[in-house]
Amino acid sequence: MADFIRFFIPFYFIIFFLVSFVGISYRVAKQIGKNPNVLPKDDSAYGLVGFYFKLVLFALFIYVILLLFFPKDIFPAFKINVLEYNLIQYTGLVLMMMALIWVVIAQLQMKNSWRIGIDSTTKTDLVTHGLFRFSRNPIFLGMTISLIGFCLVFPTVIALAFFLIGSILIQIQIRLEEEYLLKEHGQIYLTYKMRVKRMLSLY
Fold first, then answer.
1. Which of 63, 81, 136, 145 measures 20 to 30 Å from 107, CA to CA?
2. Which residues pair with 116 in a beta bridge?
3. Which of 85, 86, 69, 73 shows the shortest CA–CA distance to 9?
4. Fold of 2-195
5. How far are the Cα atoms of 29, 36, 167 from residue 114, in angstroms, in the given order?
6. What pLDDT, in 10s, does the model give residues 80-119?
7. What is the SS3 assignment for 117?
8. How many other CB atoms are found less than 10 A from the CB of residue 199?
């Protein structure tokens, strides 16, 4: 199991990044004629959130690459032994795979409205169909589930820290986007917001 995890985790996150960020970004950029990555690079509070997003992604990438090349040093470091059971790890693997599929489906359902960040220069359609009937933020939900799965597959204090920090940044980003969507779409978004929960509606 350890050898499988050593290879699975790095390749999973590489595939996740290439498909859901690079691939989808390229597809949308061709359709709209500009880069869909609109995270600000200024000194604003929102710019700081974007900077920390990138920093966490970079740190996660370094961590999983170290796991691949230096397993004897990384595997035993900061382990949470109480979670180290095969059933828990298999559950984590399933969650990670489902999360990747879920995120890609949600991104495709957004079509040209998909952005990395808030695009205040272009009015995009409010997407409420498909997975957006069950979650106002299915992509962020999928990312969160992916990090939960990561913690279960590879239960370390560092993996838990990635989950906690990532979740905080995601929740801040969600609220920033909600403010923008309410301003942009008004009553339509308010009605949608009352009908569908922020992360998951089970009905």
1. 63
2. 37
3. 69
4. Four Helix Bundle (Hemerythrin (Met), subunit A) (1.20.120)
5. 10, 7, 20
6. 999 989 999 999 999 999 999 999 999 999 999 999 999 9
7. coil
8. 17
